[in-house]
Design brief:
Blueprint lengths: L22 E4 L7 H18 L11 E4 L2 H10 L11 H15 L6
Parallel strand pairs: 1-2
Helix pairs in contact: 1-3
């Protein structure tokens, strides 16, 4: 058994017969959620250029998780619509923040 002080090299999942798991995590930060929203919209646009207009970030990750405002973004990216496809595109995240951000994240100090 390896000790806690000596590093143990692990083989990549494919080398031991396990499937690779992809995880997208999104940090919190209030109205600053517009920053990951912008990055995710760019990424989704590039994926759509490769795989078609219906491509959504949820198609590329096994798990999507977030804290605080990252959790809100996660819900938007992963919530299924009637067709069982993601209800919102990543592009809609920033539209949501621009429209609803001031009500959700009011300024505390003026």
């Amino acid at each position: 058994m390896a000790s806690l002080t000596s590093p143990t090299l692990l083989a990549p999942p494919a080398a031991v017969g396990m499937r690779r798991v992809t995880v997208l995590t999104i940090d919190g930060g209030g109205i600053r959620g517009i920053i990951p929203g912008t990055i995710l919209a760019f990424l989704e646009k590039k994926l759509q250029e490769l795989d078609g207009a219906d491509a959504r970030l949820a198609d590329y990750f096994d798990y999507i998780a977030g804290t605080s405002t990252g959790g809100l973004i996660t819900a938007m990216l992963a919530a299924p619509g009637k067709d069982k496809r993601p209800l919102f595109s990543a592009e809609k995240v920033n539209e949501f923040y621009m429209e609803n951000g001031p009500r959700i994240f009011p300024q505390r100090y003026k």
